[in-house]
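Help: why these numbers?

___
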Amino acid sequence: MTVIESVVELLLEKLADPIIQEAILLYRVREQVELLVAEFRRMRCFLKDADAKQEGDERVKNWVWDVRDVAYDAEDVIDTFLFKVAPPLRRRGFVGHIRNAFTRKEVTARHKVGLEIERIKNKIRTISDSRSTYGIENIGQQAGTSSAGRSLREWRLTSPLSQEPDFVGFEKDMEIVVAQLMEGESRRCVVSVVGMGGLGKTTLIRKVYNSTRVKTHFHFCEWISISQEYSVKDLLQNIIYCHMVLSEEDLKKVQKMNVFELSHKISLYLQEKRYLMVLDDIWKMEAWDALKDAFPDVNNGSRVVLTTRNKGVALYADPLSQPHELRFLTNEESWDLFCKKTLILVRDGGCLQDLEKLGREIVEKCHGLPLAIAVIGGLLSVKEPREWENVRKSISWQFVKGEVKISHILSLSYKDLPYYLKPCFLYLGNFPEDREFGAKELIQMWAAEGFLQQRGEETLEEVGDDCLKELIQRSMVQVAIRNSSGNIKSCCIHDLLRNLAISEAKEGMFLQVHSGNANVPLASRARRVAIHHNNSSEYTSFSSSTPHLRSVLIYNESDAWLQRKEAKFLFRSFKLLRVLYIHGAYIKKLPKAIGKLIHLRYLGCAGTSLERLPSSIGNLPNLQTLFVASSYNIEVPDTIEKMQQLGHFQVKSTFNEKLVPCIVEIKGRPRLDRINSLQTLSLVRYGKWMEDGCLGKLTNLRKLGIWVDTKADAKVLYESIVNLDCLHSLKLQGNLAKLPDSSFFPTNLTKLTLKYSYLEEDPMAMLEKLKNLRILRLLNRSYIRKEMACSVQGFPRLESLHLRQLSHLEEWRVEEGAMPSLLHLNIGQCDELKKLPEGLQHVSTLNKLELWRMPDEFKARLEEDGGEDWYKIRHIPSIDISDRMI
């Protein structure tokens, strides 16, 4: 319920939106809306204090519920009003072109919204008067320090984000587990790590899994997250996609295989390999039974690792292996972790003496549980020292049945979030357990929901990035993957924190998760719903009971699910949707009814067979993000030019993007240059839409991916991209044959990807002149000659270099002084490359080397014991040599 302040705040922002103001003025209901805004502003003054007092006081709790309901009512009235008058608004365009005459429909709409606003105003007055009735009229009178601590702007300047998760107290455990993996019996053993939630099982095994010793010992390494909801088929398919070299035809065959066929294929592949398979967070014996046939025992020292809360599962998987049970942290280990999380403690290598006693008392209440220490430390890291005592007094919890009850401390950290972060955190309950979610996709959903506030000249994505980093700083969210430049690529949330988000969200009618339990009806007032099951018949009835939904996220784990006719109800029933995300919709074309969802701001279709978008897609004037992941190329109608708010249009392949690209085919000659807000466009085929210099007029583009079929197309492309001054990321695919002079590339370009380019001249000679280039990816036959060279002082700012499937490359030379800033080098499937360049030993900045699917002779030269080329890489801290596609 602590999200109610956010609900009111977002409602007031909505009512100030220029488009809504235009509608209000046009339909002559401005006076009524202004009175409504004034009432909500007065009510907002009481909410902060009410939020702090509602714990244990049913009177205040009931009053907050009343505020929530009336705020939701007001939002529904405004959005429904806009839905009904949208066509007339689009016809008129701007207030200056308003006709004096109204149609009967428009007069009716104006009259109805007036009555609805009057009803809400009366309800607000009743709620305000009820404060006296409830005896709570004194709330809101005390001014105090915001529980949010420092502002987001201040936090950005004072709290640097850690690059890696803190690892404290598990050093000995790590040694034990590594020994179990690399020593002992030759049979395929199951190594289990057992412990309660929040004890650090996944953190420990992740550290082991990523260690160079382990990665170089095994020929094959794979990490699988199981949790309570999983699809065996999806898990097995993902192993195949990541490790096996398959043609496009083979990939489609794999998609049609059943579980038995997939297990057999993996088992055959692993026969000759010493493999390491991690099954993280496995709950039931049935999960092990479903997967074990894929892991053959050929007496070569292969290992399977399980992390589980259930010791019985561990013993069932391998009765001969004793599970490793994690302990709680000692007092000093707990203090060490606490100091790392509370950044305010560490100054000049020491600790503030006046806080140590108080800090140790707080740590003692965490009873050595790492998750609790991390979360409370994250909370205190954004608080002033004078506020620590209040936190200490708020923690009251104890051991229950041998486990630590941590719900209170997690709830405390949630309640301390500033109002702008609370809906962002609750939204994480949408995602399935143990499912990683993309950082960009999450931020775009936040923006679509209206959770992010414009801040100066910054984009909403930049604001959202700060919000995500603050949640990470508070240990409410974990970083799963960083990209080669160190930015956050994907995140995850601990299942205990996810449960907290779901519980708080459900109580406040913010969100409800439906997992297929027919005995749990969907609340009629729920604003958002996440559906995590396979049977569409179980929720198609939701449409009649939940017309006010703002967000629907569907995660399917079944093949033949959500066919086109089952999908239609989504687009016909929920007229006020802002976010629609469907994972597993096996349809070729979206229904025309999609054009009715005029409030839609985010549309995502992943894991689909989508081939075409309907022309009605152009009727979505507010759409900000269009994301599609399909196994086919996507046809897009020319009506896309009408989507004036579109900021991000990105298409990816359902298969591993490294294997089979998915390309956007834009039909006709739409004037995309009219979409001034467009920042992301990828991956789009060159076509008529680019004629007349249209591409070069998209001056706000930051990320662009283009597929080029001919050399002539490439020439026109170069003449366009030179004008894109804001462009940071560029992906060029298709037949280029030759690169232009470096002056054709935008000066702000930091990332460049080339794929299927068939370049006949060494690209390094030109690309090393790009002064701001930080990431370079030469992939899949982008260069087809035998030699390549990097010269002195070339690539002055390059930090990450990827060379993949350069099948003709035999020799790569690196002169001393080249790539002076290189941090990360990734080389894969360069089958003819004989050895690493001599000059690599002089690149002192290099801290990560990844080699995958390289010839055995190449890898033999890099062995620590006797390898001819070991001296070239011995200075590199992290070396990963594997068969897995990285």
Summary: Residues 89-101, 140-164, 398-403 have pLDDT under 50 and may be disordered. Residues 376 and 783 are 52 Å apart (CA to CA). The first strand starts at residue 189 and ends at 194. Residues 776-886 form one domain.
